[in-house]
Write a structure and sequence with these properties.
Oligomer: single chain
Largest sheet: none
Helix content: 55-70%
Length: about 160
């Protein structure tokens, strides 16, 4: 069985077209501190796998699936941290959570179970359809629909939002 050679665009063109999507998804899933590392790891894995691709269709979803898996790996590798009792406060530049659009929503999203949180993030931050979400989470499109639906129901309940 021989593989047919596929005409792929240069890898730099892929980076130029999708770097914002990869960075945004990695930060949304792994957090602002580890997001850049997850994005970099995703680009490394994509670069290594790129020459062996058998199709040039939907490269964005392929990249975002790799990104989601790298962010999941970072998240799972974290060890629970104990706060330092006598550590001085650390000044970090960046937006204050109170200035984010709807900090209550982001707090509620962070409290979702891991798979629901990832499904919602992939769907609404990564802008993937349910097939893309399913591929990233290694599940079926029906299960990804259910994860997103359950997450939205939980968010509506926590935030007191009606379905009307």
């Amino acid at each position: 069985m021989t593989r047919e050679k596929v005409e792929l665009p240069p890898f730099q063109a892929l980076i130029d077209a999708h770097w914002r999507d990869v960075a945004r998804l990695a930060r949304a899933m792994a957090g602002p501190v580890d997001g850049d590392d997850a994005a970099q790891r995703a680009w490394e894995k994509a670069y290594a796998a790129y020459p062996a691709l058998t199709s040039a269709k939907n490269l964005r979803s392929w990249l975002l699936t790799i990104t989601a898996r790298c962010a999941t790996d970072v998240h799972r590798a974290r060890k629970p941290q104990r706060p330092l009792e006598e550590a001085p406060p650390v000044a970090v530049e960046g937006p204050d959570a109170a200035t984010w659009p709807d900090p209550d929503l982001w707090r509620a999203v962070n409290e979702l179970p891991e798979r629901q949180r990832f499904a919602v993030t992939l769907k609404y931050v990564g802008d993937l359809d349910h097939h893309g979400v399913a591929a990233a989470l290694d599940t079926t499109p029906a299960a990804s629909r259910r994860l997103v639906s359950d997450a939205l129901a939980t968010l509506r309940s926590k935030l007191g939002v009606d379905d009307d």
